[in-house]
Structures are given as structure tokens and as C-alpha cells.
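Lecture 7 notes: from sequence to structure.

We start with a single chain of 243 residues. Read the sequence below before looking at the structure.
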Amino acid sequence: MSIEPPDPTGTTTSTPSSTDSSPAVPDPFSSTRPWAMQLAMRDERASRPAHLAVCEAAASAVVRLLTDPRSAPGGEWYPFVHHWASGPIRKVVRRGRGVTFTRIQELAGAEVEHAGAQVRAFVPGPVDQVPAALAKMQVGGTDMPERGEPSAPVEGGITVALTPLTPMTTGKSAAQSGHAAQLALGEMTGDEQLLWEKSGWAVRVVTPDAAEWAQAVRTARVAVRDGGFTEVAPGTRTALAWW
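Now the structure, written as C-alpha cells:
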């Protein structure tokens, strides 16, 4: 049975009265399961997005959610974002098409359409309380057949590099791109953040060869080391970011 989480507006529990037969809404903060930010990519059969476009859209969507006023102290999303960000910044990427993707647009989050890709990031919560409409979307099969080309550099934007040393699906790569963008946001000065915001939170994702990767490891301002939940070994350096 799917369990619907509470609407992230501050009310996290409810108790049915004697005349109310609806089930109690679970308290996400009482869950003992890990928390994750869910991301959903649109994957229509006739127009599948390119791998790098999905990664760039996912990274921008993550930053848009984190910089939304509702994620700031006092905002309705803040308790959820803060609780999640205080631990491992786990992200889960799902895919869907047609009405399946349309239904999840009603859930609280931030969406980006970019270079043929459409990705929505959702307010984090425990993995055992994923909204039913989102839980129906597939976690597997996220590898896109076309790699595509990186976006052109944008003044004030960031560049994310994905490791060439370890194969990763599009879903995994998108999650790592989101991690890199989130860490970049945290490392930036206030002025750098303003420039990034003016760029529209632009993210360019590249896939360097081994030599280029080795050089980037020495100079990048952010490095992502994976927790090892899926696809790669714990501690694998999966993504870098610079600006």
C-alpha cells in the first residue's frame, strides 16, 4: 500500500476524530528510513531527452528548489529541506511519461525545461513516504540513448564534470550533477551566488577524458564522493564543479 506524506506546510500529523474515518497522516520526522530528494525526468518514447541535457536540467532544478523562498528559514519547505540537508544529501531520479508525469506536477517542487529535457525536483522526505503518484514512476531504465552535447558556457554559471573512470546511467549521472550543484551553492560567496542566479542557475555538464579529469580533480572547487547506495562503490569521486 502506498503511503501519502503530509503536504509540506508545517502540519505533519493528524488524528482522526470519532467521525473521521480517514487514516492518520504519517509524521515524516518520525520515520527511521533515509531521506532523499526525489527527481523526476520526462521520458516520452517519441522524444527522449539527451543524457547531458537531463543532467544539466536536474542540477538546475535542485538549485532552484534549494534557493526558493519556501526553502529558506520560515518557509513552508524549510523543515524538510533542513532535515534532509543535515544528513547525507541522497537523491533518487525517476522517469515517467504522459499522464504519469503530468500527475506529479501537482507535488511541491521546482521544475526546469532545458534543451529538450524536463526535470522536476521535489521537497525531500523519507524514502518510505514517497507520494503515490511519484512512487509509480520507474527508477530503472533511466539511461538515455543519446549523450548529446554540453551547453555553451554562460557567464556566472557553473561547470560540472562527470567521471570518465566509472560508468553511470543517466539517472545516476543526473543525481551526481545535482549533488555537485548543491555543493557549489554552499561553497560560493554571496556575490558568486548572485551571478549564478542572474545566469538563470545555468549548469554546463561535461564528460572529460581521463587526462582532463585528472587535471580537473586538481583544480575543481567542489568534488562529490558517492555514498555507494547504487551503481558505484562508496567513496567514488563521481563529479566535480567549478565556476
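Helices lie at 51-67, 78-85, 98-103, 132-135, 170-187, 190-198, 210-219. Keep this in mind for problem set 3.
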